[in-house]
Every structure is written in structure tokens, then in C-alpha cells.
Write the C-alpha cells for this entry.
Amino acid sequence: MSIISVINKDFLVYIRHRKTLLLIFLAPILIMILIGSVFSGASGEGLKEVKLGVGGGSTLGNDIIEELNSSKMFIIVKENTFDPSVIEDGVKKGKYSAGIFIPENQTQSMKLYIDNSRVQIAPVISTVFLTTTEKMSYVLTLGFISKLWENLGEMESELGPLKEGVFLINGNISRLNNDTQNVLVRLDEINVTRMNKSINMMKTTLDQMGIDLSRTSVDINTTRNDILELDKNVSSIYNDSAALRDDLKLVVDNIDSTDAALLAIQADLQSTYHSTCAIPSTPQCISIANTVLQIQNTRALLLEKTDRIRSLYNGLANVAQKGSELHEKLIRTDIRLQNMQALIGNYIFEITNIQGNISTIQTAIVILEKVKTQSANVSIQMNNLSTEMENSTSNLISEINLTKGILGDVRNKSPAAIAAPIKLEREQVFKDMSYLDFLMPAIVSIVLMFISFLLSSITIVQERTKKTLLRTLLTPLSLEEFIFAKTLALILIAMLQGIILVVVAFLFYGILIPASQLGLLFLVILVYSAAFIGIGMAVATFAESENTAMLSSLVLSIPMLFLCGVFFPFETMPQLMVKIGSALPITMGIRALDSVLIYQEGFGALSGYLLPLLLYGIAGLGMAYILLRKEIMD
């Protein structure tokens, strides 16, 4: 008997057993159709009809629920409760796959309860919720920052009039200082010594009143003119002081308004900082913190300068009061001098009145001296105030310009860039492939593993139990040739099943494998099926019956199925399981088919997988040869 005879015999056995032959053809077709129907288009649609329990309620939370409902991924189950434990119990009892409790107080965190026993969809649900809440947070933050930017723009526009007001105050103070100097010049022109001398002469020369009456009249006229001029100057000082007080009152009101505006902006910025700056070291948070500090410094400087302006305002009030008193006294003095002129002919009878008037005049002169002294002090204060205001104005203008520059720099940044400084654009590498395309390597590997495993183990057990192995070896055919013939027949069946899988995938789901990759595909199928045929033959040498061979094959294939990374990714496994799973032949077969069908790589990328598969096959066939030879010899 030759190798070809053994192959023909095996094929005749499969042909006689019509059901076995039918299963060889139908099994890959049914498996491919079933798996394809389950997973075709799965990656595009995602999760569907996931029950979501909702409790509590707030405006923001309802917006999030509406956003989730619009995705058509969830079936919203609203619970009329404000107790989060009701939602949690609903998830624990399997009433819905996830639950969310929305507190009425929006400052509290929403609670998401996920049924993590459903390991396939729990991470997806969590990711959907995180994405939705981040989207809503971005919209809210963008609206708040846009409103803040509008307020900063209004503040920046108000700094210009404030700057002009400071210049106006400085000019008014300079004019007031000039008027004060003019008043001092006028006061210096009044000859107080001569007035005192005249009064003394009047006291000592009453007997010469008649002689000196005309001269006294002239002196009285001169004095009245001087007093009138003095009264005009005092009135001018009073009017200028009143105007300056009104201007200072306007400035104080403007500064108070500016301070209130700065305080409101400072509060808004601090609120923004506390609500958005979880990480204070980010550039936007540092910028906001610097802006708050600058506004605080500006307010402190405004308050410091405002105290001096208020002091000037109160000083001007005192000057106005003194000027009013002096004006009244000068009027009374003028009236008395006028009476003196009218009654000078009755000097003898009015001598007592003249002496009283002289005393009044002396008092007025003393007051006039005080006024001159006070005016000199006011002049000194005005000079100092003018100098201080020039320095303060320069510093205040610098601070206003600096604040304006900082506000400009902040407003130059887009609110969208601050609300979401990092943008991520997701792009799929394999745009023309479906989820079924990615499962194709695993489907081919699993089908070939089971068929190669079971057929090889059951075939050898049948040869042993029916004693056909011994009869075959009594022919000139050697054990090596027998194993080779069996392996070749099973490889042909595996190749046939691979062809069936490829054809069904194309006809039913449009999965087209490039012609350039077909040679590498069947090379991988050949080596992969040979590896499992060798392992199956080795397993068959330990089995005493077909049932034992089948169970042994399942015992080995099922753990490999779970450790190959298809159902449970290697990234979720312990490191030891990753090493074991990576060394399994099914894993190497799947990775080799991935390289051919998905990544469409050449033979160089396959050598790292095919060589271990060959070693598995050689080792299995070698063990089967040794054990069968030992059995035959015994």
C-alpha cells in the first residue's frame, strides 16, 4: 500500500459517511453565516436599546438625558424617586443595564451606576457618559467665558474715560493753584500797617478831627475800594473752590464706580478660577490669577489716591466757609465806613460810635491777617497737592495702561480655546473594513482548529481501535509514510474548508481578499492546520476511544479559545496568562492571518509565526510517531 492509497482510503471513508461529508462542507458555511449575521455592521451601529434608569432631576441633568436619548442607544426608564439607592437597586436586580441619579442641587455630583457584570458593554456605557458630560461641560464653560469676555470688554472701554477724568482733575487742580496765588498777591497789596497808623492817629488826634476829616474821608474811600477788591477776590476764591469741589465730587463718584466695577470683575474672575482651574499650573489659570492680582493692586492704588482727593475736598470746604465769613465781615466793615462818611459832620456826637467802629476795624484787620496766613498755608497745600497729583496721575495712568494691556491680552484668547484647550480628532485607519473583516482571521483560525483537532484525533483512534493501523503497517507502507499520508489528507480537507470560508465571506458579506494575499493566506492555513493535526495525532495516541479523543481535544482547544485574545483582550489579562496565550498555536495562527488579511504584510512578517507553528506540528507528529511505534512494538 502506498501513500496515495492511504489518502484515497480516507477520502472513500468520508464519502461513504454522507453525513460526515456533509458536515465537512456545511460546518464552515453555517459557522461563517451565523457569525457574519451577528457581527456584520456591529462596529457602525454600536450598542442598541440599552436600558437606562433615571432618578432625581435638574435642568442640567435633563439636558444630559435628552442628549443621551437623541443618540438612540438607550431606552430611558424614568423613576419617580429622589433616592439614589432605588436606582442602584434597579441596576443590581438587572432591571436596567445602567442607572444615573441626578441631584436637584447642581453643585452635587451625578451618580452613575453600571452593571459591571456585563463586561462587554459596561466600559462602552461609561465612555458614552463621560463623552456626553464632557460635551455639556464644554458648552456651559464656553457660554460662561464668552459672557466674562464681554464684561472684560466693557471694563476695558471704561478705562479710557477714567484716564481722561484723571487728566481733567489734574488740570483743575493746577488752575485752582494759580487762583490761590493770585489771591495771595491781592492780599499782600493791602497795607495793614497804614490802616493801623490811621486808626491810632484817629484816637490821639480827636481834637484835630475836623482838620483831618477830609483826609480821613479819603482814607476811608481808599479802604472801601481795597475792601471791595478784596471782597471780589474772596468771592472768586469761593466760586473756584465750589467749582473744584463739584469736580472733585464727580471724580470721587467716578472712582467709587470704577472700584465697584473692578470688584465685580474680580469676583467673576475668582469664580471662574475656582470653577475651571482644577489644575492651577495651566497657562489659562495662571493668566486669570495674574489678572485678579492686578485688579486688586489697581483698587488699592485707587483707594490710596482717593483719600488724598477727599482730604482736598474737605480742605476746600473749610476755605469756602472762611471766605464766606470774610465776605460778610467785609460787607459789614464797608457799611460802617460808609456810615462814618455820612456821620463825619456829627463827629462830636458820634465820637463813641467812631471809636467802636475803629475797634471793629482793628478786629477786621486781625482777621485779615489770619486770612492771609491761612491763604498762605492753603497755597502751600495746593502746591504740594499739585505735585502729588502729578506723580499720582503718572502712576495711575501707568497702572490703567498696564491693566488695559492685560485685559487686551486676555481677550485676545478665544473663549473656545480656553474652554477646550486640547482638541482630539479621531480617525480610523481601516476605513473600508467592517467589524466582520477584523473577525475573519479569528473565525478561520477557530474553525480550522476544531476541525483539524477533532478529525486528526478521531481518525487515529479509529485506526487503532479497528486494528486497521496494524493491517496497514503489515504492508510495505512504513509508519512514517502512514503518518505523512494521514497528515496530507487532513491538510487537504483543511485547505478545502479554508476555501469554503473565503468564498462564503465574499458571497454573503462582500469580504474580498486581494489576489496578492491569497498565496500567503493558504500558506498560513497549510502550516496552521498541520500544527493542529500534529497536536491532534499526539492526543489520539493517549486516547483509548473516540469519546476520549473528542473530550481531550475539547479540553485542549477550549482553554486556547479563551486565551487567544479574541474574546478577552491580552491587555486585560495577567502577565502570566499573556505569556501563555501568546505561545499558543491558535494565537500565532490568528496573528499570522491578521498580518495577511488585515495588515496585508509580506512573507517576512509571517516567518515569526509560521516557524513556531511548524515546530508545533513537527513536535506533535514526532510524539505521535514515537508513541504509535511503541504501541506497535509492544
